[in-house]
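Cross-posting from the modeling subforum.

Setting up a comparison between two proteins and wanted a second pair of eyes on the formatting. Protein 1 (sequence, then structure tokens):
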Amino acid sequence: MISDNDAKLNGAVRESNHVHIRDIGHTMALPVEKQYGKDNHFKAYTKAIAGVRVREVMRETGCLPPPRQRSVARFMNLSHTIKWSRNMQRIFASLNTNEKQTFDFVNTHGKTTGGSSDVFGFVNGVLKRVKPEGLSKKSIDTRLKETDRILNNRNKRMVRFKSSVRGQLERERDKPAGEKSVWNASSDMIESPFGCCRFKRSGNPLHGVTACALILPLLTRTGDRDRPFRG
């Protein structure tokens, strides 16, 4: 069964005696949050990002603000925001005076975004591959090799992040039943439609499904040759 890393869901799946596949997006967000969640420089950067979106949306600079960032899942999709910051630094000299004053924070936090670009780029790369390819021993082994190749900076933060990522991936590696087994590794397909349903119908108490929209588990397979599913 597949779910995010919610404690209640983890306990429920564990008690069901099913193999628990953790959503790859949430799984990769955990090491990121562990490294950056309490970092004051990083929090100041994300606060500046959120502030400029609100302030500039209806102004002349409204075409330049960063991508929208979800507050709940901010560690799952920050790679686009980091890329935006790096691009803004690259073109900063071509901005007019007003634009420079508005977006000068990209230079103020340049060290933060520069140091984290490899991390978020790596996470984004893992998600782009594992979500469509699925979870298999082969796909995880490939990602582990990429971990060693891409995350090769020896500073303490990167070493801790790399160790945490490897631990998360290795934990999932042996869950597929066989070498050729490929299982779904993303809960997006259930979160997206049920999330929309909950958003549209949340004001109507008669639609009881909305209260349970995101705790409905999904079987990751219909069966393997060496381990058939029995309903």
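Protein 2 (same layout):
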Amino acid sequence: MRQGTQQGRSWRREIAELAALFLAVGLAHLLATLLGHEDPGPVVLIGLGVALILGAAVHKRIGRRPARRGAVLPVDDGAGSPMALWRIRMRVVERPGRLATVAGAFGRLGCNILALHIAPTGSSAITPAGCDALDEFVIEAPRDLALDMLARALAEAGGHDVVIVRAQVKDLTDPGVQALVLAQRVSADPDRLPEAMAELLRVSQVEWRRPGDTVDEGAELNTTMVISVNPDRALLIRRPELPFTPTEAARAAALTAAARQARYTPSP
């Protein structure tokens, strides 16, 4: 079917070219007759005919020439990407030049800083040497980079209590914007509070607890959080690999308050 269509198009093109040839020959003969007493018609007609035939042949040859393709560039689909995402939290003494020193340590190991959040630790006062702060980075690092080498380099740059855990792309979301979006979600549907809390604190599971239920007392400091939702129930959140910060606790309390207000505030 496709071959028949191509042959039909070829015949139509040949007929159109032949018609154009006849028309050009007739016009040329008429022009030559009007221009002078002599009749140079045969010479002009032959010249124009040959020119048109050559033009049609060249056009046909160009039309049959395959289109030149551009250079094919290799495309990396990301499957063999040599980089890995890590979330790093450490306590530092904030003073001029400290962040530049830490950034230099990352750079020397081939790491790229994708996100940075700085929060006060809430445990130390400001001193002439600086004040304690909690720096949290999301970085991409070479996959073959040893974590102990990374932790040692950060310690030499002034980091203390360095914790390194796996990161995900969603960890690059701005925490403030994320908290506002989740607050709007639980305001519209308070029953989605556990789901929103898990997303806010980056944990896999949030459990309901009742007053008097036991909590894992063997957990490390600040890795377990209990948030009262109402007099009858509370949320139990665990994150053993990464302690909660005071800022995260404040955001969790604000999210719970938004759900509580939506649940118990009567509609006007």
